[in-house]
Amino acid sequence: MSESRTFSPYSDEDLEADLRWWSAANYLTVAQIYLQDNTLLREPLRAEHIKPRLLGHWGTSPGLSAIYTVLNRVIRQTDSDWLFVTGPGHGGPALVANVYLEGTYSEIYPDVSTDARGIHRLCRQFSTPGGIPSHVSVQTPGSIHEGGELGYALAHAAGAAFDHPELLVACVIGDGEAETGPLAASWNVSSFLDPTRDGAVLPILHLNGAKISGPTVMGRRSDDQVANTLRGQGWEPIFVEGDDPRIVFRALISAITQSYNAFRAGNSSNRRPAIVLRTPKGWTGPHEVDGRLVEGTHRAHQVPLSGVRENPEHLRLLENWLRSYRPEELFDDDGRIVSEVAALAPIGDRRMGATPYANGGRILKPLPLPSTDRYALDITRPGATNHPTTRVLGEYLRDIYFADQSADGGGTFRLFCPDETASNRLDAVFEATDRCWQLPLVPEDDNLAPKGRVMEVLSEHLCQGWLEGYLLSGRHGLFASYEAFAMISASMLVQHTKWLQHATRLDWRIPVASLNILLTSTCWRNDHNGFSHQGPGLIDAVLSLSPDVVRVWLPPDANTLLSIAEHCFRSRDHVNVIVADKQPHLQYLSIDDAERQCAAGASTWDWAGNESDTTQPDVVLAAAGDVPTQEILAAAQLLREWTPEICFRVVNVIDLMALLPESAHPHGMPDSHFIDLFAATTDVVFAFHGYPRAVHQLLHGRPAANRFHVRGFSEQGTTTTPFDMVVLNRMSRYHLVSEALTWIGRDDPAARRLADHCRSQLERHYHYVRENFEDMPEVRDWTWS
Amino acid sequence: MSESRTFSPYSDEDLEADLRWWSAANYLTVAQIYLQDNTLLREPLRAEHIKPRLLGHWGTSPGLSAIYTVLNRVIRQTDSDWLFVTGPGHGGPALVANVYLEGTYSEIYPDVSTDARGIHRLCRQFSTPGGIPSHVSVQTPGSIHEGGELGYALAHAAGAAFDHPELLVACVIGDGEAETGPLAASWNVSSFLDPTRDGAVLPILHLNGAKISGPTVMGRRSDDQVANTLRGQGWEPIFVEGDDPRIVFRALISAITQSYNAFRAGNSSNRRPAIVLRTPKGWTGPHEVDGRLVEGTHRAHQVPLSGVRENPEHLRLLENWLRSYRPEELFDDDGRIVSEVAALAPIGDRRMGATPYANGGRILKPLPLPSTDRYALDITRPGATNHPTTRVLGEYLRDIYFADQSADGGGTFRLFCPDETASNRLDAVFEATDRCWQLPLVPEDDNLAPKGRVMEVLSEHLCQGWLEGYLLSGRHGLFASYEAFAMISASMLVQHTKWLQHATRLDWRIPVASLNILLTSTCWRNDHNGFSHQGPGLIDAVLSLSPDVVRVWLPPDANTLLSIAEHCFRSRDHVNVIVADKQPHLQYLSIDDAERQCAAGASTWDWAGNESDTTQPDVVLAAAGDVPTQEILAAAQLLREWTPEICFRVVNVIDLMALLPESAHPHGMPDSHFIDLFAATTDVVFAFHGYPRAVHQLLHGRPAANRFHVRGFSEQGTTTTPFDMVVLNRMSRYHLVSEALTWIGRDDPAARRLADHCRSQLERHYHYVRENFEDMPEVRDWTWS
């Protein structure tokens, strides 16, 4: 990290120049919200110049532009890389205005040229069909953060800073966002950012005092209270306050340069600089409208003048407002920004709209992936041995850490996990690195160090947000979560999916590494915790999201998990949901078979069925997931032993999206292939990891979809034994056999004997487990033979 | 609120008595985790006395019991009502032990009697099949808070305190939980609890320093930092620290009595008392095991001695540990707790396990509901007029507030909403009450007051958590959310559903008011915001949860919304998800028709179809939701006008669960009724509010389910116009007509002309909206005629 530096004094000329940039940004912000014509105000403003629908958020915009303006100067002086994270992302027009002024916008979108025609287009495209959305979004150059669902700005900022020692991230946090849970927890990033290995995050808490229609908690608290809140969480606040731009700009540049020097000094103080900026909401906008105060109140939140087309007084106020920025002095006759203002922008990739840190694909290097063969279990006979499935993945991740780690202790890969890395049996990674921790250490700590690069914090929001920021700034990672608690950050996964969905449509957005999430400690094997820990709902939450982005993987064993992991780490712009439990499970496939079957998505397990060349199956037994696979195989074995005349096929589904039609998902299979696997009219007993209806929805439209009888997690759970879980949810081997016999419709003595056996085993289970507090040996120790 | 009081001094005898209670609680905690026999240690401990599977969390338990013990004394002295919220709910055995000692447990579960037989059963049932789960849960007397997914303790505590001026809520927050987002945001409850109208919340931040396998952020921070964090957010911390029980108990009772007096003084200071309790994790448990420190480290988190059955040294350590509590002095020959210890429990409903505040149905009064007629829109012709649908609900809610409000400014109903009450057009409620706000006021504030009872905070987690606490302690409420952002607290909704699912199986849990959530500002009409605000995924997240609890309602207009709202406010133990947009929409049904159709769940709209007594429909046009209903009717009108010879039926679905089979949901309809509505083989073009696959999954197994062609939100969105949204998602009237024509298979000139018309209208739309930034008049102003 470079040294701190002495900044040249902020002269009056500098200030006036900056205020002109700011005026230009504010002008273009208001113009985007209101104008469809006469966008440079070259003639008197008339109703027909106003858009018919006024959409956009003025309130936060001038503050954002003020920060952007001042940062531009600091960047020019220091020649440093800054990333701008816009927490109050509603202020989309402000960010667009600034990246337009710095030239980035026109380079990326040449149609929006740097002249009057470009400004006309800039205004018309804003918040209009076929144009750009009103919030900071994937379309906005320089952004890694969607300005919609609030709460994740500071987590994203930290994610981008990890392992980017040269980077400085300015993270603006609105006081609305500051009320959210994820943001409130994000102040703790101070305990995880290493002062030398990681970049710096400069939170700028922008207190403008109001949300849509009321005050904000932080905005209404005293400076003392705000300072205490930040100090307690590892930050040293610098207050910048006022409504006089000249005072605020001077104080702001002083606060930022002071912060810059503190970062560059690189001390590991527990007090990292943070700026608290109090400026009026809707600053420089209409002060009063229709006799009511607007500036500085919640009434400035969106469109402070709403009746402009109909109300001549509003039209007059709007024209005065626009002219107050003196557009004629900011844009030349061609509509180009005048050169002395344009010169205030940094150069090239230092421009915050052009920084490669916000277009991570530009700096992404493929992850050095060891060959999976080295970690694969040696499987000579399927279903004969048990192994904790995720442990093998832990060893693979350990060696990814080793292969990727740079000499200076950095790297491009991190594992994110609420305090569960060891619990999830991924603890082999601690042979390569430690848990990251900037607070004091004690002798009893295990695998904990400031330079550690495994990210553990008891917040799924932080884990997910950090990983998102890490990926979008050009790195790789994995979020490992207890399955049930992945729902905590489900909305973040949805928003990230939306981001990727739109990113793939933009040529200039270079693909980034996929967001990989491992759901482990699953519903079937949280028998030691209980119902609150049992929930496979994340699958349902992602199934209907963009098929170009979402994949759901259900590897039945360790070697398939390895193969899927490798695929996911190589993939780009996807969201991969991988479901695999951590407990010891039966292992089935050699690594070669695993790779073939993962690529196929769904396969027949010939060794488990009893078809011959001349028979057609009476029933298909299908499974997706580790516990379902075990139960369907145990069911198959019962059928084979008790009713050898019944012909059945066993199918295993690893890639859940393969069940969809081709038209619905790139992994979807055509009906012909579907029939090859599941036959055309045969009943299918399907044991599924999650809620049965997740499969039902995928099967809609398939030939005779009603013949699929799906058993899965039916929301029955508690603290109990593993087998009791499958019994409670009626997915046990005995339930599956009974279901198969029912649909086959056989009533011969052998079938009846088997049905009786299943009933009596379930009865026995009930008594056995209540006497012995553990499962019957014949199910506990069952293997395929 | 009562006066503060002078507490009698805490004598040595008091302390020793309390320590005996604490020993008894700790003994029973360890016994529950380990013992299946010899539960009172009347003989030497042998391997066969130990459970085969050791499940449970020791680490947090002794701290929880210490707090419980001291609170019992305070309750006896003050004769006050306390509710105990156990954030570290993993400590289930500790809470069970305490409510057993106070007698509540045996009153509720007589099988677990107050003698040796009862203790034997208490131990055997813990964490075993058919027994009780390992966490504090719905089965635990005195709990309103499931100890699984962390983050909601303080929100639940505040929810229970609102409008319960006599209640004191002790809310234990673990330092693991303190890292979560929802908990971090919950410190802000200080800005919403009114000191006189509401009860008091006493947060007890229990810093034992470790999570499963690592340190905690708060635990490792200095007292100064913790104090600053709390002070900044409105709390005055009282530190209690140590590992000597005699010192800690004295300090703790002093902290609690001091807090009690501060609450009873009732001042509205910005500094409410909060206790910070630092005690060792696994306090009084094995100090060292196998040469490694355990007590005070993360190794004490779950089962500190894990090899007891196989390892004689572990067995010996366990016996010493158990005997260290001197069970022989705590339980008499019959195994009854000795009388001088039993006498430490409060009496009757003052016992925290028996408080009616934790069994809200006991104190729940029906909500006084005005007749919906008074708010109903007067509909003489369907689809002829527009009205903002939620506005009518706002008027109804206003009068519920009026009818329910008590003379002292309290009540039993609250509306919870992130800063969006006005945006969601429910602002009529401000005629009855204000937004709740304990921070300073300024003249420009609208509808803001300390006594306000509309709860606005920009945190879906807090809104949801407050409502959950409010309901479980015996009141009524509604959470109104932007539809997309309801996903933020989806995991909470899942957990609350699980709670209700198990609660309904317990006779002693008296039914509570349903959790009602209004999803408004929906995906179809967030055209002014954009893609991040467009997501109907909450429907998918709840569909597979317990059918005994979950209902999803899609009222197409204001009168149906009123009818559904009334039904939901009367219902008990349900989770009602109601989807209705706030924008002006066409209105269809009189209040009488609305009530009939809401009760029916799904109905034929005869006036919209063109069947006669002698015809069978060529196609069924179905819709669920406001925008889908509008588009399906517009499609019907096109068919009627352009191809009058095509016979079609229009069906409207309000109760989504009615689509399920009878066997799958109490609202499910039998196939016979299903065929009456949708015919048996006719193609159905179904316009749906949410993701189409949400309907697909419900239809699985229905006669010829493949004939249902569902159009819905297909994850296409941006800032655009209302009609462009339905076009982007291919659910516009023109798409629906094309779909119908395709399936009918007509190729006559009229059908071809209509198909051409649809194509050309879509083409026209594309150009029109890009020129005019608004929708074509014929769709914008369309009404049914």
Automatic annotation (TrEMBL), chains A, B:
What SUPFAM superfamilies does its record include?
Thiamin diphosphate-binding fold (THDP-binding)
Recorded GO MF terms? aldehyde-lyase activity; magnesium ion binding
Which Gene3D superfamilies does the UniProt record give?
A: 3.40.50.920, 3.40.50.970
The segment(s) forming the Xylulose 5-phosphate/Fructose 6-phosphate phosphoketolase N-terminal domain are: 11-362
* BP terms from Gene Ontology: carbohydrate metabolic process
Q: Which InterPro entries match?
A: THDP-binding, Transketo_C/PFOR_II, Xul5P/Fru6P_PKetolase, Xul5P/Fru6P_PKetolase_C, Xul5P/Fru6P_PKetolase_CS, Xul5P/Fru6P_PKetolase_N, Xul5P/Fru6P_PKetolase_ThDP_BS
User: Which intervals hold domain Xylulose 5-phosphate/Fructose 6-phosphate phosphoketolase C-terminal?
Assistant: 582-784
Is Acyltransferase included in the keywords of this UniProt record? no
Family matches, as Pfam families: XFP, XFP_C, XFP_N
Sorted alphabetically, which keywords does the UniProt record give? Lyase, Thiamine pyrophosphate
The answer, when asked if Lyase is one of the entry's keywords, is yes
The Swiss-Prot or TrEMBL record lists the needed cofactor(s) as:
thiamine diphosphate
As for family, the record states: Belongs to the XFP family.
Name of this protein: Xylulose-5-phosphate/fructose-6-phosphate phosphoketolase
Q: Which organism is it from?
A: Gordonia effusa NBRC 100432
